[in-house]
Design brief:
This protein has strands spanning 13-17, 26-31, 34-38, 44-46, 51-59, 68-76, 94-104, 107-113, 123-126, 132-135, 141-146, 151-153. With 155 residues, it is mainly beta.
Length: 155
């Protein structure tokens, strides 16, 4: 499900979804470049201050039978605290990333977090088969699928 909203809005744009597959409704809200989640038990979570949420999807991208939370975010640097040994220091510029979480016990658990995306993303969507379609500002599209541990481009 695509939330597809104006990511810089000061007005909460929310959707009701079953984020953890328990049959209860959870509320996702993107407001001021942050994502907040409130579950049916009244527990809440908000994205951190070191990255900005552009959009969010909920769907079973890794085919395990439970939906994942898929975020398109902007953050400084490409890697974060874990970087390849050949990279001496991270970049300071903002770049786009895809973060995928499983929702466990009222909190997100990181499943996969991309490095800097190799293309600029204006929007993304997830179909019923778990294929992620990415659209650039120029209208070009690419399709991505989950393979073992991460997203790969679908030829």
């Amino acid at each position: 499900e695509m939330l597809n909203r104006d990511w810089s809005s000061d007005v909460c744009s929310s959707d009701l979804v079953d984020l953890d597959g328990d049959g209860a409704t959870d509320e996702l809200c993107v407001e001021r470049r942050k994502l907040s989640v409130s579950d049916a038990a009244g527990r809440g979570w908000q994205s951190g201050g070191d990255w900005l949420v552009q959009d969010a999807l909920v769907g079973d991208i890794n085919h395990d039978g439970v939906p994942e939370l898929i975020l398109l975010v902007w953050k400084r640097g490409s890697y974060g605290s874990q970087r390849p040994f050949w990279v001496e220091r991270d970049e300071w510029d903002f770049s786009q990333h895809i973060f995928i979480y499983q929702w466990r016990d009222g909190r997100p658990k990181a499943l996969w977090m991309s490095s800097r995306l190799p293309l600029s993303v204006a929007a993304f969507s997830l179909d019923a088969q778990g294929t992620l379609t990415v659209v650039t500002p120029e209208g070009e599209t690419s399709r991505w699928v989950w393979l073992s541990w991460g997203l790969v481009e679908d030829d």
